[in-house]
């Protein structure tokens, strides 16, 4: 069974540019999460999809970030325009169900550097 | 609000020695607690989780953790370190009493294993 995949693995862009990160969850997982780790800080929750709907987007930093999940399958996270403080590692995770039995499976992350 | 504190950003042990990684949590509702490990250039992998069943939780690769409500702790241990255990370890808390399934992470502890 394929795990959670993320693309690209690394991205280096200049301030003001746009970047789109992609996450492909494990097949059949309705829940999809985005997290971010800024260097030296903890991993922080950004948002949670259930199928194609946003269940919780309380962690999104500001309106420069836009997440979508087309047809409840893969998800994209667009940053437009990117700022220096957006640099970090963006993780995607997926799971079959929420609740005590939930296990979130993480992808390898996308390392974003904004210059 | 929930939070997690991991004591020690870096821990170094000798091969064969006891591994002890500390995690304290704060939660106003019964917590669900997790330990994840991240090996270089890989995603986060679940080591073990506590979901209010047995207080001593056994995980993969010989790791275990004990939930101590009186101390609000969930420390991770392994009796004998192996070189392959060198990685970064994250403690996380979640609450399924509410609607959120998102994880709240500590800052991580990097474990080094000396030969």
List keywords for this structure.
heterodimer; A: 115 residues; mainly beta; four-stranded antiparallel sheet; B: 115 residues; five-stranded antiparallel sheet; 0% helix
Mean pLDDT of chain A: 93
What oligomeric state do the depicted chains represent?
heterodimer
Which consecutive residue ranges of chain A, at least 5 long each, have pLDDT under 50? none
- Helix-strand sequence of chain B: EEEEEEEEEEE
User: Could you describe the largest sheet of chain B, including whether it forms a barrel?
Assistant: 6 strands, mixed
Share in β-strands of chain A: over 45%
Question: Structural class of the secondary structure composition of chain B?
Answer: mainly beta
Estimate the mean pLDDT confidence of chain B.
Answer: 90
Report the structural category of chain A.
mainly beta
Distance between the termini of chain B: 41 Å
> How many helices of chain B in DSSP terms?
0
Return Rg of chain A in Å. 13 Å
Number of strands of chain A: 11
| Element pattern of chain A in H and E | EEEEEEEEEEE
Name the shape of chain A in a single word. Answer: globular
Level of helix content of chain A? under 10%
Our Rg estimate of chain B from Cα atoms comes to 14 Å
Number of helices of chain A: 0
Contiguous low-pLDDT stretches of chain B (5 residues minimum) are: none
Fraction of residues in helix of chain B: under 10%
> Judging from the principal axes of the Cα atoms, what is the shape of chain B?
globular
TL;DR of this structure?
Chain A has 115 residues and is mostly beta strands. Helix content of chain A is 0%, strand content 50%. In chain A, strand 5 (43-50) and strand 6 (53-56) form a beta hairpin.
